[in-house]
Amino acid sequence: MLVLLVRGGTVVDGTGAPARTADVGVRDGRVVAVGRVDETARRTVDADGLVVAPGVIDLHTHYDAQLCWDPYATPSVLHGVTTVIGGNCGFSLAPSEPEGHDYLTRVFARVEGIPHPTLVDGVPWDWRSFADYLDRLEGRLGVNAGFFVGHTALRRLVLRDDIERVASPDELDAMLHHLHSSLAAGGLGLSTSLVQSDNDDQGRPVASRFAARGELVDLARATGEHDGTTLEIVPPFGPFSDDYMDLMTAMSVAADRPINWNVMNVSVAIEELIAQRLSASDYAAERGGCVVGLVMPDTNAMRLNLVSGLLFDALPGFDLLMELPVRERIAVLDSPARLLLRRSAESQVGRSLYYITDWGGLRVGETFSPANEGLAGRLVRDIAAERGADPFDALCDVVVADELRTMLVTPFRGDDDTSWKLREATVRDGRTIVGGSDSGAHLDMLDTFTMSTRLLGPVRRERKIARLEEAVHMLTGMPASFYGIADRGAVREGCWADLFVFDPERVDSGPVYTSHDLPADGSRLYADAVGVHHVFVNGQQVVEGAELVDARPGRTIRSGRDTRTVTAAEGLSRQWRSGVDAPRSGG
Q: Is 586 part of a structural domain of the chain?
């Protein structure tokens, strides 16, 4: 007898193959039949008029902390996500000794935008090794979850408080020891960050940004000594220098693994920059490496402020400003010195952050001072024109009055017809893969956890950048093959029964709103899904309609056990774009 029978749906199997009407039978957590199924089942779901697809695999999330109090990784699971990959950007919660917990907590709060009290209340820190962390989650998850080993965690563990320097040979050996142990326990690979905006709560660069080139290459080489591993990096803003392209290539070649970098938000305003960054893939290919960029398939806006300063601190000049206490920042922004800030910010690196340095294009989202009453929802350029002021000066006056707490909303990047054509070309480019939602992070800044329902819904229906089969493949079979995640990303006999059942004519994200549901009364941006009927993880239902179902069928995704090795050569041949791995038993 089957445990579950999903009857009469339109099966879009995740490989890019044409949709077909079929039943899907499930037993022992796996798909055992696709086609006409006459076997009886304990539960039958009528999927007539609905799409039955694999669960979405989100390659770039930061659910590491949230899974400690929320086993479902909400709201992603509501949007069809059944597998999340965390530990990205060099930030993992393990390995770590107790004396490093405060630093990692403060880094997660600052860089990932998770309220510090939420992390203090919600993360138990009852682990030390990477194996301990994975074991703590095993059996308690509502979704599947795998994790990179974060470079910042490794450096903090070995160098302790003295992280702002190059590691000695002995210290590098110690990092390699902990990396090997973590990968042997199931870590998916090494992640690191060199981006200018990754700073701690004091405005200082996080630990990974102090690493020498040799350290990064040696850690990558060690990663390649373990089966089923890969590499992830966050690059600096701006055009890729020759040295940086050479670094990514060297890491890929040393590990014999693809390396992916995060993230492209497509707009015709940066078309030349996108082309230059994608050329890193060609540079690597000529030298035997494989470099792949993650690309978001939708437009998005961000909510920023000058208290946390995230992304502002990537602007030249603002990086130094953000190292100052808030009172001193206010004094600078309320003085003639702010003109120097503007000139620095509008440099070459600043132009790559055009959606911030177009000061007049920022919209005031929320204000806190009586002096700013009535400004919410207005563009800075309109406020400036009304006051007869320069937009940058008007912006400074507004945020100073709010003691820097003003919420500033960036324009939707690339929401014009030309940018949408460029976006379609970019998501279809063999040097990219769809991903980069950052779900679980930037809780007051981003709503990109809607990536899957937006792509399958209005982006596909209205912008037509992909057929249904292609869109499903981009979210399921493609990421599974790229990371070598075995037996997932497809509706096929032998695969795990991660199933996403939705109405193709209605699927979408609902409105984004603030939810006050985090530990210690923390809040976050949230959105329910529209047109989602069922989500199954390993054959058990976790979402019915808009509601969670009380179940814990998720598994940790561990390298070697649940993944196969994807070499640099396989990445170069783009075999991972053609479908999922062949089913295998066990695991």
A: no
Instruction: Using a cut of 0.85, tell me whether the model's pTM lies above it.
Output: yes
Backbone torsions φ then ψ of 56, nearest 5 degrees:
-70, 140
Q: What is the pLDDT of residues 309-367, one digit of tens each?
A: 888 988 999 989 999 999 999 999 999 999 999 999 988 666 778 889 999 999 999 89
For residue 195, being part of any structural domain is answered with: yes
| Rounded Cα–Cα distance for residues 129 and 372 (Å) | 49
Helix (H) or strand (E) holding 234: strand 230-234
> Could you tell me if 467 and 561 lie in one domain?
yes
* Structural domain contains residue 219: yes
Give residue-wise pLDDT tens across range 400-427: 999 999 999 999 889 999 999 999 999 9
Q: Is the pLDDT of residue 581 over 90?
A: no
Residues 119 and 102 reside in one and the same domain? yes
Does residue 113 share a domain with residue 205? yes
Q: Is 367:373 a contact under the CB 8 Å cutoff?
A: yes
3-state secondary structure of 233: strand
* Strands 532-537, 499-502: pairing kind: antiparallel
Query: How many Å apart are CA 136 and CA 130, to the nearest integer?
Result: 10
Q: Which of 275, 438, 413, 293 is nearest to 353 (CA)?
A: 413
Place of tokens 């696709």: 34
CA–CA separation, 338 vs 102, rounded Å? 34
* Co-location of 477 and 525 in the same domain: no
- Residue found by looking up tokens 């479902």 in the block: 72
Domain assignment of residue 484, given as a range: 56-300+413-499+557-577
Q: Domain count of the chain?
A: 3
* The one-letter amino acid at 237: F
Provide the CB-side half-sphere exposure for 530 (13 A, CA). Answer: 13
State the pLDDT at residue 442. Answer: 95
Q: Tell me, yes or no, whether 546 and 397 share the same domain.
A: no
Tracing tokens 């494989």 back to the chain, one arrives at 290
Is residue 315 located within the same domain as residue 349?
yes
Domain shared by 487 and 513, yes or no: no
